[in-house]
Specification:
- This protein has about 425 residues and is an alpha/beta fold.
- Among the domains are: about 140 residues, Rossmann fold (3-Layer(aba) Sandwich), CATH 3.40.50.10860; about 150 residues, Rossmann fold, CATH 3.40.50.720.
- It has a seven-stranded mixed β-sheet.
- It starts with about 25 loop residues before the first helix and ends with a helix.
- The structure holds glutamic acid.
Length: about 425
């Protein structure tokens, strides 16, 4: 008989209810949205407690021999937040800002994201505290392989499947796949997604997150009765997500009036030629020195008078400090956690329509799912098939979230959390608690 997770009381007990919310802590940011959705769903307290805690958290020390002969020790994390709906899925980031709290939040967001788009995965995330821009290819390879070896017991196509994230790419995924396969003594392509196409990667994976942003932005513009043609867009972050979203939105007829990365932000009311900017960044590694627009600050970019703002870099860029100054009518969260919980209410009051991260940037993991399916089936799809199936999932998910938001009279973020949490909790109820 399935265990009934209902506890005698229906009241949700929040351990940190009265604690001051640290706006910059991504795990608290995730949890405050989770709590709101859990309350509206009247989530059973037993399930509430289960979903508030990550299933597994791994911290490892990673010794790496540097090119100069010295040995450096890096810290690496992998968090499996929840695996009730399927294998854990989530990227690995290499960044100096990585912390356990951040990785926990990102792993929880992966859980909700996979549930929002209804793909059969749980959520995980990994990170290594390092500055990849200061490391040679050889050092990065040794770091990646030793990190993979350190977490190898939890990896596997049926247990935990990494992918690229901030500062990791196809090359890093190839090293992970090779290291895992050497230990398994046979080639296991489905252990990681976002691989090079030549070794089991999927066509369209590299562009998938940006493409997904484009699909949901178009849906949102239609919903708001705003034309796509000529809609002005500012994009913060010009990596794999921001640059692709900008290119694809431009192809759809939008006017990209501002772009920015870590090094520089540019504004050009007449429109920026995104393809040209991408070529520049390929040659020069960043937008530093690009002159086809007026130089502005990152904060100015976020508060420009545009139709659409796409924050596509890191967490905590729209906060309670600058949210009141945001003038965009629509925000498409290409990054994970770009808006703090403190900013949510301000944006809502201003009537800004937000496509939340767990929906807006789910295109990447959706095509990761396609890649995993293709690897396991050993049969590969055309790029058109990948893109069409991605469009179907993104538009359907957008409409699912929108209708829930209308039904419960809540914003899109709360609706997305409600959809995700109800899907995950349904599976917990069906599976029961193993004792
Ligand atoms: N790193 C991406 C994300 O945050 C993709 C994860 C994946 O494909 O597993 O959604």
């Amino acid at each position: 008989m399935a265990t009934d997770l209902r506890l005698p009381t229906h009241k949700i007990v929040r351990p940190d209810k009265d604690r001051f919310l640290n706006e910059e802590n991504p795990f608290e940011a995730m949890m405050s949205r989770f709590d709101r959705a859990a309350e509206l769903l009247d989530l059973e307290p037993g399930i509430y407690r289960v979903l508030r805690n990550p299933e597994k958290q791994i911290i490892i020390s990673i010794p790496v021999q540097l090119d100069n002969g010295d040995v450096e020790v890096f810290t690496g994390y992998r968090v499996l937040y929840n695996t009730s709906r399927g294998p854990a899925k989530g990227g690995i980031r290499f960044d100096m800002q990585v912390t356990l709290e951040e990785v926990k939040a990102l792993a929880a967001w992966m859980t909700w994201k996979c549930a929002v788009v209804n793909i059969p995965f749980g959520g995980s995330k990994g990170g290594v505290v390092c500055d990849p821009l200061k490391m040679s290819a050889g050092e990065l390879e040794r770091l990646t392989r030793r990190y993979t070896a350190g977490i190898i017991s939890i990896l596997g196509p049926d247990s935990d499947v990494p992918a690229p994230d901030v500062n990791t790419n196809e090359r890093v995924m190839a090293w992970i796949m090779d290291t895992y396969s050497m230990h398994a003594r046979h080639t296991v392509t489905a252990v990681v997604t976002g691989k090079p196409v030549e070794m089991g990667g999927s066509l369209g994976r590299r562009e998938a997150t940006g493409r997904g942003c484009m699909f949901v932005t178009k849906e949102a513009l239609h919903h708001l009765g705003m034309p796509v043609q000529g809609a002005t867009v500012a994009v913060q972050g010009f990596g794999n997500v921001g640059s692709i979203a900008a290119q694809l939105l431009q192809r759809e007829g939008c006017k990209i009036t501002a772009i920015g990365d870590r090094s520089a932000a540019l504004h050009n009311p007449a429109g920026i030629d995104v393809e040209d900017a991408v070529r520049y960044v390929k040659q020069n590694r960043s937008l530093d020195g690009y002159t086809k627009g007026e130089l502005i600050s990152n904060d100015e970019l976020l508060t420009l008078d545009v139709d659409v703002l796409v924050p596509a870099a890191l967490e905590n860029v729209i906060t309670s400090k600058n949210a009141a100054k945001v003038r965009a009518k629509l925000i498409c969260e290409g990054a994970n956690g770009p808006t703090t919980a403190g900013a949510d209410a301000i944006l809502e009051e201003k009537g800004i329509f937000v496509i939340p991260d767990i929906l807006a940037n789910a295109g990447g993991v959706t095509v990761s799912y396609f890649e995993w399916v293709q690897d396991r089936g050993g049969y590969f799809w055309s790029e058109d098939t990948v893109n069409e199936r991605l469009r179907d999932i993104m538009t359907r998910s957008f409409r699912d979230v929108l209708s829930l938001s209308r039904q419960h009279k809540v914003n899109m973020r709360t609706a997305a959390y409600m959809l995700a949490i109800s899907r995950v909790s349904t599976v917990h109820k069906l599976r029961g608690i193993y004792a």
